[in-house]
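For consistency, the fold was encoded as tokens, which produced the following:
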Amino acid sequence: TLFSQNAVPATWNQTQLMQLLIGVNQQLEVLERCLGQDVEWEEPSLESENARLALKIYFQGMNQYLQGKEYSH
């Protein structure tokens, strides 16, 4: 996996690395917006459902992005 401790260091294509970092940064911004919306929400039961859905969507998007870039299996 990408974050495996036993991975052999590899030479990364700098263009692909920058694309990965930009994509991760964009996903982080989306997550921060989602979390900001959830903090302001009034109803606790709906808030927890929205937070769960936002996180699910975030990680699905991250997984699809990494698979598209062939960084994840």
Observations:
- The two ends are 7 Å apart (CA to CA).
- The longest helix spans residues 14-40.
- The chain is about 70% helix and 0% strand.
- The chain has one domain: 14-68.
